[in-house]
Automatic annotation (TrEMBL):
Gene3D superfamilies: 3.30.530.20. InterPro entries: START-like_dom_sf. It comes from the Bacteria. CDD domains: SRPBCC_3. It comes from Psychroflexus halocasei. This is Ligand-binding SRPBCC domain-containing protein.
Length: 153
């Protein structure tokens, strides 16, 4: 089964400010829940480009540490970028990041399609373990972005 996360957040910043922050892999650590132990281990020290490989170490759930390897698939400067998991905790992870200009700032939009491993077992744990954790991750990001940039009135 293919699952989806779709979030939007208005921010009172320019498209360039949003791009500079969101397209820098090092900022992921700043907006990810601390208990995930998120650390970039390689590939995050360059400006984003198609084909870029970024490796992370992450604890998505207590007692479970994994390596996560993503590839930047597409980049349209100031508008969007797409990353996909090459290796990690998901069977499929495809994440589209959009920056739309709106009155007073930008609309940051995330669209993630993902599939879990382990077949039936993955489907069983999704509503109790995976979905709540993803909701928490994106809610933490929303709150951190407000702390960093404020909100549109």
């Amino acid at each position: 089964m293919l699952y989806k996360v779709h979030t939007k957040q208005a921010l009172p910043i320019s498209r360039q400010e949003a791009w500079d922050f969101l397209s820098d892999p090092r900022n992921l650590e700043r907006i990810t829940p601390k208990d995930m132990g998120f650390k970039i281990t390689s590939g995050g020290d360059k400006a984003m480009y198609p084909g870029q490989i970024i490796q992370y170490k992450v604890n998505p759930f207590p007692g479970f540490t994994t390596n996560w390897v993503t590839e930047i698939k597409q980049v349209d400067h100031l508008n969007f970028f797409i990353d996909s998991q090459l290796f990690g905790p998901y069977k499929l992870w495809h994440h589209e990041h959009f920056i739309h200009k709106i009155e007073g700032g930008v609309m940051m939009e995330d669209l993630v399609h993902y599939k879990l491993p382990l077949g039936f077992l993955g489907k069983m744990v999704h509503p109790y373990l995976v979905k709540p954790r993803l909701d928490e991750i994106f809610e933490t990001r929303r709150k951190k972005m407000i702390e960093l940039f404020g909100t549109i009135s």
